[in-house]
Amino acid sequence: EQYPVEMHKVRIIQKLNLLPVEERLVAAQEAGHNTFLLENKDVFLDMLTDSGVNAMSQDQQAAMFRADDAYAGSATFTRLRDKVVEIFGMPHFLPVHQGRAAEHLLSTVLVKPGTYVPMNYHFTTSKAHVVANGGEVLELIKPEGLQVTSEHPFKGDMDVAALRALISDKGADAIAFVRMEAGTNLIGGQPVSLANMTEVSAVCRDHGIPFVMDASLIADNLYFCKTREASCADLDVREIMRAMCDLYDVIYFSARKVGFGRGGGICVRDDRLFHKLRELIPLFEGFLTYGGMSVREIEAITVGLDETMDLDMINQGPIFIDYMVRELERRGVPVITPPGGLGAHIDAMRFLDHLDQHDYPAAALASALYIASGVRGMERGTMSEQRNADGSEPLAHMELVRLALPRRVFTLSQLNYAIDRLDWLYQNRRLIGGMEFTEEPEILRFFFGRLAPK
Ligand code: F0G
Q1: Which domain holds residue 124?
Q2: Domain end call among 252, 281, 310
Q3: 97: which DSSP letter?
Q4: How many domains does the chain have?
Q5: Strand partners, 141
Q6: Which region among 4-8, 159-163, 264-268 has the lowest average model confidence (pLDDT)?
Q7: Residue 93 placed within a domain
Q8: Mean pLDDT throughout 11-38?
Q9: Local confidence band at 209 (pLDDT 50, 70, 90 cut-offs)
Q10: Is 123 a catalytic residue?
């Protein structure tokens, strides 16, 4: 049997705390059964997200010491810009404080009321910014992408025929931009193939529609292209990255995910679009040479981007996720397959098949898992959807509990603990009932909404 093994060692540690189950129950109740509202001191293994919590390397930490503090013209920023231009190959780069800031600015400039933004799949914040500017998000994921169990290697691929049909139906002018999320977040961290990006890019170029990549989860996606796509097998990671980037007009990313740091950025090819976006940076983010990021974080991201081009660094997430998904599958726990990036995704719809989707099964499972184990996951289902304008509630395509594996953070024995507790919870799944809102915010309600057992 093969076990994953890390190509790094741990040299700084943080002590963890495992509360007794009675205290975990109280903590869950005080958090309104929303894992976002738990205090981290009450959490044993924090698998809420990989955002801003990936482990830094010694080279990143060392770089943070030489950061050049300057409002304007910081040498630290120049180092990041040069690195981004080297890796992404785009002429222009703008710094922003995190991924959703890039989404805010791109939607502000490109989305007009009544326009459409087709994408392989939405992410919560990317959709919210399109909608806030009067646009409509259309998801053109291939049907395989929504099958919870499959052996399809690239379930994040976009349906190119559907994109062509949409353009001939609405007209190219009605399409604000086409967004490719590589890899996808809400459908189980599933990657997009280079072949699919190439096809979509050709359609966009034929019609003069800007093609935008959300590269927040690109590290895992690069690994999957290298290991699952025949045409990439003989390319190194940098070459795959450049082959992708050359297909796009705009690439933005959350450096809380890619680059093992905290920040974000937008790469732009076209001069006019660059100038329009640049005007908004000082208004919303900060001056052009920091964009809301601390110079120390900028140094860490610059080094982290190089580490993202190193297969020994970016393989750890996907191979640990693969291990966790396969072990859960062996125990009969319903999971999304094939294993993707970002984390292991538990299929709450099958796990709690006695609950209705309006009972928020993924939220119920996330809270139950915390109580049973101290492991904090994230609801990625109907609770993460936004109500329609008429107040009705759209049901999510999938009801997932995501157990994110921040890069380079957890050990295999910690994964085994989580697997064992999930196994126990699955054996005792009838203990878990449905939930209802006691407090429901209007926008991005999953962040601070509160629930109670129905
Ligand atoms: N795009 C994708 C695909 C993301 O996964 C995220 C964040 C963002 C954009 C927004 O970036 O957080 O830096 O503003 N995903 C985090 C998560 C929050 O937990 O999945 P941000």
Answers
A1: 59-310
A2: 310
A3: S
A4: 2
A5: 158
A6: 4-8
A7: yes
A8: 97
A9: very high
A10: yes
Alpha carbon 187 to chain centroid, angstroms = 10
**pTM to 2 decimal places:** 0.96
276's tokens: 């329009």
Quote the ligand 1 centre to 49 CA distance (angstroms): 9
Residue with tokens 């499959």: 150
The torsion angles phi and psi of 108, rounded to 5 degrees, stand at -60, -40
Q: Does 14 map to a domain?
A: no
Angle of helix 237-245 relative to helix 75-88, nearest 10 degrees, comes to 90
**Ligand 1 pocket at CB < 6 A:** 49, 51, 98-100, 123, 125-126, 181, 185, 214, 216-217, 254, 256, 264
Closest CA to 180 of 207, 208, 160: 160
Bridge-based pairing of strands 45-46 and 375-376 is parallel
CATH of the domain at 367: 3.90.1150.10
Interval between CA 213 and ligand 1 midpoint (Å)? 13
Average pLDDT over residues 320-347: 97
Residue range 368-426, pLDDT digits in tens: 999 999 999 999 999 999 899 899 999 999 999 999 999 999 999 999 999 999 999 99
Nearest CA to ligand 1 atom 20: 49
Contact 304, 296 (CB under 8 A): no
Atom of ligand 1 nearest to the CA of 342: 20
pLDDT tens-digit map of 180-195: 999 999 999 999 999 9
Residue 151: which pLDDT band, with cuts at 50, 70 and 90?
very high
Same-domain status, 256 and 325:
no
Q: Which of 35, 96, 257 to mutate to test the pocket of ligand 1 (most atoms within 8 A of CB)?
A: 257
- Closest atom of ligand 1 to 125 CA is 10
* 123, 211, 252, 260: the active-site residue: 123
Active site residue 380: yes
Q: Is the ipTM here above 0.95? A: yes
Question: What confidence score (pLDDT) does residue 386 get?
Answer: 87
Specify burial of residue 36 (Cβ count, 10 A radius: 0-12, 13-18, 19+).
middle
Are residues 286 and 258 part of one domain?
yes
Amino acid type, 418:
A
